[in-house]
Each structure stands twice: as structure tokens, then as C-alpha cells.
């Protein structure tokens, strides 16, 4: 049981320069006994309102250097404070605020929301077990307008999809990775490096790109590239929800549409998922 969507903004000041972290936190506990479920005995139950207050107090006292470190702080607090807690799991996602720049100069206290992927993390621990940390990015929408195709697939009497060797590849990406046991990592540096790897593997070289024969191959290529570049990642899960665009037939308007005007197909949409780990 636990408390979901604890939302707040943490403002940190260093002289004239301000720093912000707006987060959404979910905390869940498992206790050493199930007596509250079986017998209605609430003597060991930590109210979810107390959980919320603990999260807010820790944010006030410790700040949020990174969301991963904040999740670790919350896990450690519940484990060290309450002997009846057998397991704790914390999920945190961060609102995408970035410092505003004016003529290349960073502003001291103004920020802009840039929806280019939501950073999130999880931390979990069993009593007498290791504290395990996960990082991730979601709602990252990517597109390339060529260097993608889909050919040679299985066909039967229900197949109507034509083969293509030049199409738009667009998808909304969810990626989650495991660091294994918690260590003194530079979580900001690693997260930014993984995001850069995702973009590079998806797009390819800036002057020519990288051909994708399928969404599945693109998913695996991204995972392989991250594992080759970021040694701290042990397991990486990736889901790519496909966004399709159909070429609009404009013959009745007296025009030939050479893939210049396309209509997005909202539903149904395909999805490719893979989890890949080191040996």
C-alpha cells in the first residue's frame, strides 16, 4: 500500500541563482505482517498521509540533488525508521523544466518547460537486501522521415500492408534501465549520456542517417548501443509505440502528393518491446 502522485516544486537558492525540481513521487510499502488485511488490526500501518509528509520533509531537509538520490534517501528513511517495513519502493518523475537562456546567457531565475522526454527513476529495497536503483525516460517522441522500411514480412490471406523501403519512422519511446546495486554514481551524467545514445542510435550519422529495416531492429540497436557505451547499465528495457503516417491521396484535387502531405493514424498503433541485459 502507499501514496501516489505526491507533487511539489523544490526551489533551491544560491545567491541570485535559483534551481528548481518539480517532481511527482509515489511510495509503496510492504509490512512484515498482513494483519491489517486479515484481521483489521492497524497497529503496524504507517498512514499514507504520513508517507506524504515524510517525502515533503526529506525534500525540505535534504533537497533533491538528483531524483535518483532523493529516491534513495526516501528508501533509506523508511527502512531505518520503521522496523515493521519489509519492503519499500519509490517512483519519482521530474517535470521537464530547463533554465531559460537569453542571447546565449543563462537566466538566474527563469525556466521553460521543454517536453522532450520525462525523466523518471525507481528505487526499491527489501529488508536485509540491497538497494536497487532504476533510471528511465518516457514520452520521448522521435521521428526520421527516411532511411526506414519494412519488407520481407510474413504474408497470408489477411495481409494488406504493402512492403516499403522508404517510409517515415516515428514512435513514442519508453526506456528503463537497471544500475544493479546502488553505488555512488553521477546519475545526472549517466542519464544525459543514455539519452544521447538513444538519439544517436535512432537517427544515425547527421549527414546520412542509419537505415532501419523494422521498429524491432531499431529497438535492439538502441539497447546494444547503450550497453556498449554506458558500463553502469546492467539491464535495459525499451518500448517503442509506433506512430504511423498515411500519404494523403490528392488526385481529386488535381495534385500528385509525393509523400509531402501525410495524415497521422492515431489508433490502432503498433508497439515493439524488448528487454536486454548483460551476460
Mind explaining what this structure looks like?
The chain is an alpha+beta fold and 279 residues long. It has two domains: 2-129, Roll (Urate Oxidase); 143-277, Urate Oxidase (Roll), CATH 3.10.270. Helix content is 24%, strand content 40%. It has helices at residues 35-38, 48-62, 67-81, 187-203, 215-229, and strands at residues 2-14, 17-31, 85-94, 97-102, 105-113, 118-126, 131-144, 169-181, 235-242, 244-247, 262-265, 271-277. The chain has an eight-stranded antiparallel sheet. The model has no long low-confidence stretch (mean pLDDT 95). This is Uricase. Urate binds at residues 48-49, 150, 167, 216, 242.
Structure, briefly:
Pathway: Purine metabolism; urate degradation; (S)-allantoin from urate: step 1/3. One of its GO terms (cellular component) is peroxisome. By secondary structure, the chain is an alpha+beta fold.
List the SSEs and their pairings.
Elements: E1 2-14, E2 17-31, H1 35-38, H2 48-62, H3 67-81, E3 85-94, E4 97-102, E5 105-113, E6 118-126, E7 131-144, E8 169-181, H4 187-203, H5 215-229, E9 235-242, E10 244-247, E11 262-265, E12 271-277
Antiparallel strand pairs: 1-2, 2-3, 3-6, 4-5, 6-7, 7-8, 8-9, 9-12, 10-11
Helix pairs in contact: 4-5
Characteristics:
279 residues; alpha+beta; Urate Oxidase; 2 domains; eight-stranded antiparallel β-sheet; two-stranded antiparallel ribbon; 5 helices; 12 strands; 24% helix; 40% strand
